[in-house]
Amino acid sequence: MRYAGFILVVCGIAALHGCRFKPANKTGSQIYSDQCASCHGTKGEGLSRLVPPLNDPVRLAQLGDSLPCIIRYGVRGRAQFGYQPMPPFPSLEADDIALLWAYLWELAGHLDTSLSLAQVRKSGCVE
């Protein structure tokens, strides 16, 4: 009986802090679907002159190592080429951003999606 009370307390604490636990095996595709697709489109096509496309390898190459910073901090005011501002995503952790970054390259038709967590951390925007 004593262990049952302990287990009940542990489960209660876990339930209260459930939003802090990340599901295992989350993919870049899932993160994109949850965080990006509502604005950038399900295939990264963007929305005319309002939201930039993310499925363009030239554009991704231009963004380069600044992409983790853009994801983390967003873009204020009128962004490059007159696109709408982008909100920040401070809750995404470095591993989420690495998965998302690799998935964006996949959307752009780039076959090597082995972008690493070390590259994201190198940006200086994400611990």
Quick synopsis:
The chain has helices spanning 2-16, 28-35, 37-40, 57-63, 67-73, 94-107, 117-122. By secondary structure, it is mainly alpha-helical. Helix 2 (28-35) crosses helix 6 (94-107) and helix 5 (67-73) packs across helix 6 (94-107).
Protein described:
With 127 residues, the chain is mainly alpha-helical. Helices cover 48% and strands 0% of the residues. It contains 7 helices and no strands. The chain has helices at residues 2-16, 28-35, 37-40, 57-63, 67-73, 94-107, 117-122. The chain is globular. The termini are far apart. Mean pLDDT is 77; it is low at 3-23.
What is the approximate shape? globular
Q: How many structural units, i.e. domains?
A: 1
CATH class: Mainly Alpha
Mean pLDDT: 77
Output the CATH homologous superfamily.
Cytochrome c-like domain
Task: Determine the N-to-C terminus distance.
Answer: 43 Å
| Biggest beta-sheet profile | none
Instruction: List the quaternary state of the chains.
Output: single chain
Number of alpha- plus pi-helical segments: 7
Helical proportion?
A: 40-55%
CATH architecture: Orthogonal Bundle
